[in-house]
Amino acid sequence: MNSLFAFIARQRAFIVFVLLEVLSLWFYFKFNNYPSAIYFHTTNYYVAKGLQLQASITQYLNLGQVNAGLAAENARLNAELTTLKGQQVPTIINYKADSTVAARFQPIVAKVVKNSIVVAQNNYLTLDKGTADGILPGMGVVSPTGVVGIIRGCSEHFSLVTSLLHLDPPMRISSQVKRSGEIGSSRWEGDNTEVVKLFDVSRYKSVKMGDTVVTSQLNSVFPGGIMVGTVKKLGVSSDQTFWDIDLKLATDFRNLSYVYIINNRLQKEQEQLEKTIQAK
């Protein structure tokens, strides 16, 4: 305490000067309108800037949670859309899908924790969902923009996905030209991570540049109507029987963060029935 008093005694002139300066500034801004307004607006400006910076930092730190929430909401909306598509009634025949069949595809949100994208190799993804979340080998995986791959193996908390960019064995996706309804098979050839081939479409069927190609209804892994890509190159195959078609992939594999694992709740029942018929 004595040291404090001694310091104040030594610096009393400076302390009195500072107090008088503060008091004079207070009187200046208090009783002069123009300086008072300038001070008010200036302080408000910098306070607002500080609050804006704080809000930006908080928003950035919460981006992961926001993205996860959006992915979950998209999964819910995708499930509803898939159900509605399954219940659509064709105009030619009087048909309506059973509600259980129409709602058989259930998307489960997962985060990509590892992803390989290499030309002329077998590429895989690792997801943060496993058997503890109900994930099983054979389930399809899609992104918000298109097809990604199929679950190859699972641990309790992780899943390994065979990417569409896979060569041995190549992944084949039953596909359909959306405009004309022609069915084919999409497969990666290994030379470009943004392009796949569409095979088995007769050259006598209507296909045009820019046509959209989606998954067909003729599989138990993916719902029909999931984007595969768009026609970017169109020619005739060497045997003159089929189109030679290159598709620009809808999925950007270099920027995958969240994906949807497609759980077909009736997949096992369908595949078991088909195996019994094939065995005969």
Automatic annotation (TrEMBL):
Keywords of the record: Cell shape, Membrane, Transmembrane, Transmembrane helix
| Residue stretches making up the Rod shape-determining protein MreC beta-barrel core domain | 120-262
Q: Does the keyword Transmembrane helix apply?
A: yes
Q: Does the keyword Kinase apply?
A: no
**Which Gene Ontology CC terms are recorded?**
plasma membrane
Ranges in a coiled coil: none
On the tree of life, the source organism's domain of life is Bacteria
Where do the TM regions start and end? 12-29
GO biological process: one example: regulation of cell shape
**NCBIfam families, alphabetically?**
PRK13922.9-3
Family listed: Belongs to the MreC family.
Please identify the protein, giving its name as recorded. Cell shape-determining protein MreC
Source species taxonomy: Bacteria, Pseudomonadati, Bacteroidota, Cytophagia, Cytophagales
